[in-house]
Write a structure and sequence with these properties.
This protein is α/β, with parallel strands linked by helices. The protein has two domains: 119 residues, no CATH class; 178 residues, Rossmann fold (3-Layer(aba) Sandwich). It is 36% helix and 26% strand. The strands form three sheets. The chain has an eight-stranded mixed beta sheet, sandwiched between helices. A hairpin with a 5-residue loop joins strand 13 and strand 14. 39% of the residues are buried. It binds N,N,N-trimethyl-histidine. GO terms for molecular function: methyltransferase activity. Keywords: Methyltransferase, Transferase. It comes from Roseiterribacter gracilis.
């Protein structure tokens, strides 16, 4: 068994409360950072989203990754170590691990304790010879990675188009920080969702079964559970729209009535129809993303798309 004890840099209740108070104090547009969507239930609801007919990104990226994994493995070389940001259920990384020649370590970084524990335990049972290092952390804030010794290359792995959850300027700052953390010559394999028809995009974020709605509304239920708040979740509705000018899908929670909500002793007013902006999901063309990566100091080594041009994977090098 080579499963390390998790490196615990879990965000505190205080960090959560500060984000919620600040985000709901903004008079023009209330916001909540999307990272707080991923508590134990939120991570499971997200897993359910990935199985929906309308949610094309996961199955498209997974199939593409399966196709190109041998090519990646050739470039990464023997004894590479994978550092994955937002490891989630750990489905995609298996495709990489299977293709790589004797990978030396797998560092899994995730904000959800349960998702991280379950995924790394399951993987440790399958791959008894692989060093696995779980890191419980919010990677949008400064966090420490374990020292990565050994001779192989470092291969950062950031799938799912999670980079799209950052605004472009923040994405560049994050990619710059990641390049410094992964070190000289490191590779980064990153999934980026492509721009496409409004209908396809809006359906992917507002499925008929209401799973995405539950995922979004769970944020309010979580605030009630963890921050002694009294949101009446029934008085909010899920909304997602494609913002063409910004090139992003936006998720909102709409207050269907005028109401007051108290969160750890502080009251917040909502007008009927007022929204909380809970997530952005930016979509990028291939060149557009390569330019962004370049301004963060990364060289574009290769880019692949599926046959229907729904999704892309980029290989970058520091
Ligand atoms: C995989 C985290 C990037 O933005 O598509 C899915 C999250 N939100 N449905 C995305 C999400 C609503 C997802 N990420």
């Amino acid at each position: 068994m080579k499963l390390n004890q998790a490196i615990d840099q879990a965000p505190s209740r205080d960090a959560f409360l500060t984000d919620v108070w600040n985000g709901l104090s903004c008079p023009q547009q209330k916001t909540l950072p999307c990272k707080w969507l991923y508590d134990a239930l939120g991570s499971r609801l997200f897993d359910a989203i990935t199985a929906l007919d309308e949610y094309y990104p996961t199955r498209t990226e997974t199939a593409l990754l399966g196709d190109i994994a041998p090519e990646i493995a050739k470039i990464a070389g023997v004894h590479a170590r994978i550092v994955e940001l937002g490891s989630g259920a750990g489905v995609k990384v298996r495709l990489l691990l299977d293709a790589l020649e004797r990978p030396s370590a797998y560092v899994a970084v995730d904000i959800s304790e349960t998702a991280l524990r379950d995924a790394t335990r399951a993987l440790a049972n399958e791959r008894t010879d692989l060093r696995i290092v779980p890191v419980l952390a919010d990677y949008t804030r400064p966090f420490a990675l374990p020292s990565l010794e050994g001779w192989g290359n470092t291969l950062g792995f950031f799938p799912g188009s999670t980079i799209g959850n950052f605004a472009p300027a923040q994405a560049i700052a994050f990619l710059t920080q990641l390049r410094r953390q992964l070190g000289n010559n490191a590779f980064l394999l990153i999934g980026v969702d492509l721009k496409k028809d409004r209908d396809v995009l809006e359906r992917a974020y507002d499925d008929v079964l209401g799973v995405t709605a539950a995922f979004n509304l769970n944020l309010l239920a979580r605030i009630n559970r963890e921050l002694s708040a009294d949101f009446d979740v029934r008085q909010f509705a899920h909304k997602s729209i494609w913002n063409e000018a910004q090139g992003r899908i936006e998720m909102h929670l709409v207050s269907t009535v005028a109401q007051t909500v108290t969160i750890d002793g502080r009251a917040f007013e909502f007008r009927a129809g007022e929204t909380i902006h809970t997530e952005n999901s930016y979509k990028y063309g291939i060149d557009q993303f390569q330019r962004m990566a370049a301004s963060a100091g990364w060289q574009a080594r290769a880019a692949w798309t599926d046959g229907a041009d729904l999704f892309s994977l980029h290989l970058l090098q520091a």
